[in-house]
Structure to design on (202 residues):
């Protein structure tokens, strides 16, 4: 009998993003552990200096992967169908993952997009309630000090620095923080003017 013409059928799997993980690596001075971020939902609020580590995989071989925001592109490393890389965003805005295939084109579906808000680190605050202003040294020549300090990301150490004149060498005196200190402290200390070699008029 007669047979039909042979035809070859090639099955092509859909090209889509199978996995994407974004981990926040916080600045070391914050002493915070790395944190995997949930991209769906509200704007992600990150301290300034935080790096984002991105890892993902697609169902097909990839050509190039980059994270884009406002005309700025951060390229990520590609190996086969996987990609990985770290970026340090410095401004607020929407960040979109762009994936290009070797033969042109893009993955199916909308590219992942998430919004970031970068919060700058506030400078520590220091106040001297005692003596509070210019004062006269007592006969003992020990000048009592009360120091109020605060920092929104926590305190790790404190010190008093002084120098004689505008060009003198800087001397540093550590002031211990109370046990359990977090983001603020009220400290008591004293300057021994005799030990510092200071005289009237200095």
């Amino acid at each position: 009998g007669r047979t039909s013409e042979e035809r070859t059928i090639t099955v092509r799997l859909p090209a889509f993003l199978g996995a994407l993980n974004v981990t926040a690596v916080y600045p070391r001075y914050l002493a915070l552990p790395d944190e995997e971020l949930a991209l769906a939902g509200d704007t992600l609020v990150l301290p300034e200096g935080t790096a984002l580590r991105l890892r993902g995989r697609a169902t097909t071989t990839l050509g190039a992967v980059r994270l884009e925001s406002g005309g700025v592109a951060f390229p990520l490393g590609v190996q086969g169908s996987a990609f990985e890389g770290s970026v340090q965003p410095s401004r607020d805005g929407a960040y979109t993952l762009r994936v290009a295939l070797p033969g042109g084109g893009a993955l199916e579906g909308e590219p992942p997009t998430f919004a970031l808000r970068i919060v700058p680190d506030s400078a520590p605050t220091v106040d001297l309630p005692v003596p509070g202003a210019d004062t006269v040294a007592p006969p003992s020549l020990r000048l009592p000090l009360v120091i109020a300090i605060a920092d929104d990301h926590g305190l790790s150490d404190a010190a008093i620095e002084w120098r004689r004149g505008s060009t003198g060498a800087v001397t540093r005196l550590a002031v211990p923080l109370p046990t359990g200190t977090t983001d603020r402290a009220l400290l008591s200390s004293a300057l021994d003017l005799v030990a510092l070699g200071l005289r009237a008029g200095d």
DSSP finds no helices and 14 strands in the chain. The first strand starts at residue 17 and ends at 25.
